Amino acid sequence: MPSDLVETVPPNPRVVDAQAHRIGEHIRALRRSRSLTLVQLAERTGLSHPFLSQLERGHSRASMVSLEKIAVALETSQVELLAAGDPQPRDPEDTRPDVLRSDQGARGPFSQGEARLLVHAGRHAFEPLEWTGANTDPGDFYEHREDEFLYVLSGSVRLDLGADAPLLLGPGDSAYYRGGTPHRWCSPDGGRFHLVVVKESPSRSGGAA
After folding, report:
1. How do residues 9-34 score in pLDDT, each as one tens digit?
2. What is the pTM of this model?
3. Conformational region of residue 29, where left means phi above 0, alpha means psi within -120 to 50, and beta covers everything else
């Protein structure tokens, strides 16, 4: 990472890193702006009160599925929460082209892999994410109001769209599904996969995630 992009991790030794600290502060600010207590947020998300408390202080890092549950409860998007960890957010009124280098972009973990936001935080018509992983357990379903597009760059992916039988996708394959479609994916054999996932922004779909 270039020297001018080096982050300063807060001095509290229990804080995971600077990104986790920023995301936690953003979640706390959103929760308070909606006049919710931690207990109420726990009830809405199905996540434990102690975990949410640790998350807001940057002492824990949420999975992408947990971020989705929190986003629904706070009437925002999973990507907005992830974007809060970006050390270089853009001015919402900045209309210049947005160039993101390979060592930049807010990142979030999930089982055996990682998601990276492919634009700087700001106002966008769609939200592109890069996913890499090797998880054989698909985990819980994601479900949001926005349409979504998935493209396989490398590896094999088992895509489960809820009511339909799971699909096996390989390099060059893609899928588009409407908002409200349950979806999840995993590796069929433990091999590494590399995806680009593009989700419509909540403002374009007429509602929050």
Report:
1. 344 557 777 888 888 999 999 999 98
2. 0.72
3. alpha
| 5, amino acid identity | L
Tokens representing 60 are 């824990």
Could you identify the residue written with the tokens 């959103």? 30
Q: Please say whether the beta carbons of 86 and 120 come within 8 A.
A: yes
SS3 for 61-129, per residue?
CCCHHHHHHHHHHCCCCHHHHHHCCCCCCCCCCCCCCCCCCCCCCCEEEECCEEEEECCCCCCCCEEEE
Task: Give the whole-angstrom CA distance, residue 206 versus residue 143.
Answer: 15
Sheet of 157-160: strand order equals: 167-169, 157-160, 184-186
- The rounded distance, in Å, linking the Cα atoms of 149 and 175 is 6
Question: Beta partners for 128?
Answer: 198
Q: What is the pLDDT of residues 170-206, one digit of tens each?
A: 999 999 999 889 999 999 999 999 999 998 876 544 4
* CA 181/CA 169 separation, integer angstroms: 18
| Residue 190 zone, left/alpha/beta (φ > 0; ψ -120 to 50; rest) | left
Q: In whole angstroms, give the CA distance from residue 31 to residue 40.
A: 10
